[in-house]
Design goal:
- The complex is a heterodimer of chains A (about 250) and B (about 425).
- Chain A has a single domain, classed as Rossmann fold (3-Layer(aba) Sandwich).
- Chain A starts with a strand and ends with a helix.
- A six-stranded mixed sheet of chain A has the order 6-9-10-3-11-12, with helices on both faces. A four-stranded antiparallel sheet of chain A has the order 2-1-4-5.
- Helix content of chain A is about 40%, strand content about 30%.
- Chain A is built from nine helices and twelve strands.
- With about 250 residues, chain A is of the alpha/beta class.
- In chain A, strand 1 and strand 2 form a beta hairpin.
- Chain A is globular and about 60 Å long.
- Chain B has two domains: about 375 residues, no CATH class; about 55 residues, no CATH class.
- Chain B contains eight helices and 20 strands.
- The chains are: A alpha/beta (about 250), B alpha/beta (about 425).
- The interface between A and B is medium-sized, with 31 and 24 residues.
Chain lengths: ~250, ~425
C-alpha cells in the first residue's frame, strides 16, 4: 500500500529525514518510535503534505501513485489521513459544516454521490458512538475551546467519517488520560480492517498496549535504525532510548 | 493650503447650486472655501489621497445630469429575494414616480422639503460635508411618524453615472419619530464605465426609543469615487445600527458618526471590506458618548487582495458626564497579497472614569496551519481559503437582521471568495 524509499526531507535547509525506507501492507499496524527530535512528526507531516517540509530525495508510492506529487487535499482524497498532534482551532467554522464539506469533496473525488443532510447526519450519529464524542462538541466551531482529549477524539471521529485507507496517528496519545486513551484506541481498533493500514507515531509504549502494532520501528537522526515486533517497544519502555543512540553513534 | 486648486475644481458646481436652502448653502460654501479640499498631509485624509484622486480621475467637475431610468432597469437591479419598497434615485435626483408609495411615510424631494439641513451632519466637520451642503442637487426627505413600525425594508436604490458632468451630490434627510422602527438598505448601481464622483450626505434624526437599521452595500464600478458623510443623533432608549459592506470601487471614503445623546441609547457600527484590484476603501467612524448609560459596539473586518488598500480609523469619545458607558471596538484585517496595504487606527478619548471600553486592531495573514488542516481533510485549497475567510467575515454578516439582504450579501461574498458551502 505504502512504499517509502530513501526519503530525505529538510526544513528551511536543515535536513531532518535522512533516508527513510518503509513498506506498509494492508491490514498492518506500524509503530514509529524514537527520542524527541528524531524526525517522527516530520515523517508524518511529509506524508500528509505539509508545505514547509521540502523533500530533497527519495520517493513515496501510495497505492501505485507518487504521493509526493499530490496536493494535501488529494492525498486525503486518495485515503491518507493524518491525525494531528496539535489539532487546529478554527473559530467560525462549524464542525458539522466542515465535515460535510470535507466528506463530500472526498466522495466526489472517489466518484461517489454527495451525501444529503439526512444521510450525513445519520452517518455522523453512527460514527460519534465509536469515539463517544458528544453532539454538543460538534455544534461548536471546529476544535474551538475543546480540551486536549476532546481534540484528539475529534481527530479520530473525523477519521471514522472519512474512512481512510492509511491512517497516520501523530502522537495521538500525548496528553491523554487513561480513559481518553482507551476511548481513542478503541475507536482506532474498530476502524481497522484487512484493507486499511495504520502508522502510529509515538514517544511512549503506553499507546501500543491498546493499539497493538505488527511492527515497531525506531527512528533516530532521521533514519530507521532498528525494526522489530511489539517486544521492541517493551524493551524501549524498560531501557529507554540511550542504548540505541549509543549503538548507532558507535557504528558511525 | 492650495486655494487655487479647490476653486478650480468645484467653482462651477458651487455656482450652479439650486436656489433653495440658500442660507445653509451659503454658510457651507464659506466653510468650504475657507478649508478647501484636504491637503496631501492633512491628518483626517492622511492615507486617502482624495484630492489628488479627484484631480487625476475627473475632467468635468459639473453636476452629472439625470440618467434615464426605465422600469425594467429597476426590476433587474433589485436583488433577488428582496421584498420591500424601493425608492429610486438617478444621479442623486429622487424619482418619485418610479418609487414605491409607502404607507405611513412622509416622503418628498429634498429640495422641496422642510429638512433641517446641516443640523446633524455639520458642515464645519468635513470639507466634503460642506461641499455637499453648498451644492446638493437632489435627494430625499423621509419622515417616519411616531409609534410606527415600517414592516418592510426600504431600499434606497441609486443609479449613478457620468452624464455631461461627473459629480453627483445626493443628500438624504431621515427623521424617525419616537418609538418607531425602520430598516433602510442603501445600494448604488453604476451606469457606464466612465469615472464619477459621488459626494453624499445622510442625516438621520432618531426619536426616543426608535430602532433604525441602515445597511449599505458598496459594490459600484472600479471607476467610482465616493465620499459619504452619514451622521445620526440617537436619543434615549433608541438603537441605531449601521452595517457597511464594501466590495468594490476606485476610492471610497465613509465617514460615519454616531451621537449618543440620551441614556440607554445604543449605537452599532459594523462593516466588512472585501477588496481586490486597486480598490481603496477608508472607513472613518466616530461615536460620541455624551451622556451616562449608553452603549456602542463596533466591528469592522477587512480582507485585502491584490493591490487593494484599506483604512480604518475609529474614534470613540467618552465625555466626562458619560459615566457607565460601554464602548467596544474591534478591527481585524487579513492581507492576502504582499501588495495589499491596511492602515488601522483606534482613537479613544475618555474623560469619564467609570466606563467599560475596549478596542483591538489586528492585521495578519491567512492562518497557514488552519489552511493545511482543512486541506488534510480533503477540502480543496481554494475552498479551504474561502471557508476560513468566510468564517472570519461571518461574525459581521450575522449582525444583519434583514434576511433577504443578508442572503444577498452572503452570496456576493461567497462568490468573491470563490466558493459556496
Amino acid at each position: 500500500m505504502l512504499t517509502i524509499k530513501n526519503l530525505h526531507a529538510a526544513v528551511e535547509g536543515t535536513p531532518i529525514l535522512r533516508g527513510i525506507n518503509l513498506e506498509v501492507k494492508p491490514g498492518e499496524v506500524h509503530a514509529i518510535m524514537g527520542p524527541n527530535g528524531s524526525g517522527k512528526s516530520t515523517l508524518a507531516s511529509v506524508l500528509a503534505g505539509r508545505e514547509e517540509y521540502e523533500v530533497t530525495e527519495g520517493e513515496v508510492i501510495f497505492k501505485g501513485k507518487d504521493l509526493l506529487d499530490l496536493a494535501p487535499e488529494d492525498r486525503a482524497r486518495e485515503g491518507v489521513f493524518l491525525a494531528f498532534q496539535y489539532p487546529v482551532e478554527i473559530p467560525g467554522v462549524s464542525s458539522t459544516n466542515f465535515l460535510r464539506t470535507a466528506l463530500n469533496q472526498v466522495r466526489e473525488y472517489r466518484g461517489q454521490e454527495p451525501l444529503d443532510a439526512v444521510k450525513f447526519l445519520s452517518l455522523m450519529k453512527e460514527k460519534m458512538k465509536l469515539v463517544e464524542i458528544d453532539q454538543k462538541l460538534l455544534s461548536r466551531s471546529l476544535n474551538e475551546g475543546f480540551s486536549g482529549g476532546e481534540k484528539k477524539r475529534n481527530e479520530i471521529f473525523q477519521m471514522a467519517m472519512l474512512e481512510p485507507t492509511l491512517s497516520i496517528l501523530d502522537e495521538t496519545d500525548s496528553g491523554l488520560d487513561i480513559d481518553a486513551l482507551r476511548i481513542v484506541s478503541n475507536g482506532v481498533n474498530k476502524l481497522k480492517s484487512a484493507d486499511t493500514a495504520t502508522i502510529v507515531v509515538t514517544h511512549y509504549q503506553r499507546l501500543l498496549e491498546y493499539i497493538v502494532p505488527d511492527y515497531v520501528h525506531v527512528l533516530y537522526k532521521g533514519q530507521i535504525v532498528k525494526s522489530g515486533t511489539k517486544d521492541l517497544a517493551l524493551e524501549l519502555e524498560a531501557k529507554g532510548y540511550d542504548w540505541i543512540k549509543e549503538e548507532v553513534d558507535a557504528a558511525v | 493650503m492650495s486655494t487655487l486648486v479647490k476653486e478650480d475644481l468645484f467653482e462651477n458646481l458651487l455656482e450652479s447650486a439650486p436656489a433653495n436652502f440658500t442660507e445653509a448653502r451659503q454658510t457651507a460654501k464659506n466653510l468650504y472655501l475657507k478649508s478647501g479640499l484636504p491637503a496631501p498631509k492633512e491628518e483626517e485624509y492622511k492615507f486617502t489621497g482624495i484630492t489628488k484622486k479627484l484631480e487625476k480621475s475627473l475632467d468635468n467637475y459639473n453636476q452629472a445630469n439625470q440618467l434615464s431610468v426605465e422600469e425594467n432597469l429597476i426590476k433587474e437591479s433589485v436583488f433577488q429575494g428582496f421584498e420591500g419598497d424601493v425608492l429610486v434615485f438617478s444621479n442623486g435626483k429622487f424619482l418619485q414616480e418610479m418609487s414605491s408609495t409607502i404607507e405611513g411615510l412622509e416622503v418628498s424631494d429634498i429640495l422641496s422639503s422642510s429638512a433641517e439641513i446641516g443640523s446633524i451632519a455639520k458642515a464645519e466637520k468635513d470639507a466634503f460635508a460642506a461641499l455637499n451642503q453648498a451644492s446638493f442637487s437632489g435627494g430625499i426627505s423621509i419622515k417616519v411618524p411616531k409609534k410606527t413600525k415600517i414592516e418592510k425594508p426600504i431600499l434606497l436604490l441609486s443609479f449613478n453615472g457620468a452624464n455631461d458632468g461627473q459629480v453627483i451630490t445626493p443628500r438624504f434627510w431621515i427623521e424617525v419619530g419616537d418609538f418607531s422602527e425602520v430598516t433602510f438598505l442603501d445600494q448604488s448601481i453604476s451606469m457606464g464605465e466612465e469615472a464619477y464622483f459621488v459626494n453624499k450626505v445622510v442625516e438621520i434624526k432618531g426619536g426616543l426609543n426608535s430602532h433604525i437599521n441602515y445597511y449599505r452595500l458598496q459594490n459600484e464600478s472600479n471607476q467610482a469615487i465616493e465620499i459619504s458623510n452619514i451622521e445620526t443623533d440617537i436619543q434615549s432608549d433608541a438603537r441605531f445600527t449601521s452595517v457597511n459592506i464594501s466590495l468594490s470601487g476606485d476610492m471610497v471614503r465613509n465617514n460615519l458618526s454616531l451621537n449618543l445623546l440620551g441614556s440607554n441609547s445604543e449605537g452599532n457600527m459594523y462593516g466588512i471590506y472585501l477588496l481586490n484590484g486597486k480598490t481603496h476603501v477608508d472607513n472613518h467612524t466616530n461615536v460620541d458618548h455624551t451622556i451616562p448609560h449608553a452603549e456602542s459596539n463596533e466591528m469592522y473586518k477587512g480582507i485585502f487582495d491584490a493591490q487593494s488598500r484599506g483604512v480604518f480609523n475609529g474614534k470613540i469619545f467618552v465625555r466626562q458626564d458619560a459615566q457607565k458607558t460601554n464602548a467596544f471596538q474591534q478591527n481585524n484585517n487579513v492581507l492576502l497579497s504582499d501588495d495589499a496595504i491596511v492602515n488601522t487606527k483606534p482613537q479613544l478619548e475618555i474623560w469619564a472614569d467609570d466606563v467599560k471600553c475596549s478596542h483591538g486592531c489586528t492585521v495578519g495573514q491567512l492562518d497557514e496551519e488552519a489552511l493545511f488542516y482543512l486541506q488534510a481533510r480533503g477540502i480543496g485549497k481554494v475552498q479551504a481559503k474561502g471557508l476560513l475567510l468566510y468564517a472570519f467575515a461571518g461574525e459581521v454578516m450575522e449582525k444583519i437582521e434583514e434576511e433577504s439582504f443578508k442572503n444577498h450579501v452572503v452570496g456576493l461574498i461567497q462568490d468573491r471568495l470563490g466558493s459556496k458551502f
